[in-house]
Amino acid sequence: MNASRLTFIHRILKRWRHFRSRLREYEKHNLAEWQYWGSKRAGRALGVGPPNSVLRDGTSNGRQCKIEECQKWPEVRYARPRQSRELGLELNRVATDDSESAAASLRRGIEHAEGEKHDLALDDLGQGLQLDPSNADAYASRGAVHARCGRSTQALADLRKALELEPRHPEANFNRGKLYFALGEYLKAIQDLNLVLELDPTDAEAYVNRGRAYDANGQIDAASVDLQCAVKLGVSDAATHSLLGCIQLQMNKPRAALSSFSKAIRMEPGHAGLYYHRALAYAAVGQVQSALDDYGRAVRCHPQMHQALMNRGVTYLAIKKYDLAIADLTAAIEIGEEIAYCYCCRGRAYLKRGDYRLAIADCTESILRNTSNAVAFYDRARAYQAVGEQRRAVADLARANRLERDASVRFKST
Q1: pTM surpassing 0.70?
Q2: Alpha-carbon dihedral sign for residues 352, 355, 357, 361
Q3: Rounded distance between C-alpha atoms, residue 346 and residue 333, angstroms
Q4: pLDDT band at residue 407, thresholds of 50, 70 and 90?
Q5: Which listed residue, of 31, 53, 124, 175, carries a Cα 20 to 30 Å from 182's Cα?
């Protein structure tokens, strides 16, 4: 055998030893890391809570904050006539027949708004403003009605007018904060809600909404503080607990998240997304069987929830139940979401089970959909090596190494 041939074989063996050592490191990835690889792509699969903070039953709304979603919010606030609001404020104007009639129109408008008779409410509030054009309460309440009807431009105009007349108006600041939140202007929402809480530090609903705005703006520490304040003040709805649990998962506090999701489940026991996220928390603390149980509950509640099927398959893969893993990942692929990742995981399951040709096929499908997937190249290299196709194995290994080096360079440059 000539020297060049020996050199070539030595180079292949050296690369293969390096590949096997890298693969052993890869195998050490714990279950939680596998889970989160899938869950970060899947996002928050909750179906309760604010429209822009969660996904609904496993489908993404892409954080598209539209004013139409205000129609789903029951907690807009109406500014009642000043005499009936226990704020300890004195009127700066002398009561007249017109002002009394304006107050009566305002009361009627609010009664109609609370009864979902929005057209009648707008008529009464408009009549009140004709009688008293400087009535901030009427502008604030009419802005709230417009927001409930999905009219963002009119709502903002009325709320701004109310705040021009009275900059520290609590209802106007609260409703404008919610409106800015719906429109994706989170910093403006936070500013308005800051003033609401300055006026009333015990306003639990304002803490909830500011927490949502902080979360949407990426300020999860502040969001966590606000939501915990809301819970301490007596907020006990599933939406708040579920959002707090999601934030606690992001903050790497899975045990706290378990508590939050369990409270939410007690309030909404048939909700797939809550079980799914509690399963993630169980996986993060190493309670594998509890995670599998919750994934199963999520699938029973929502059979088409691909995140639950995908992560349950990954969990079965981690505990070496390859047939169950393949079944779940196949079901997730048939749903048609996260296909590249599912093919990659199913390819790993086939590889572990010794079905090398099937592993090669699945890894190839994953690579076709995501050409930067180093894991799929690694696993296909192993499968090629197992069937004796050494050249293809070495080529895939080299590609995987290049992808990892490129990813490392990109990470260091950020």
Answers
A1: yes
A2: negative
A3: 10
A4: low
A5: 124
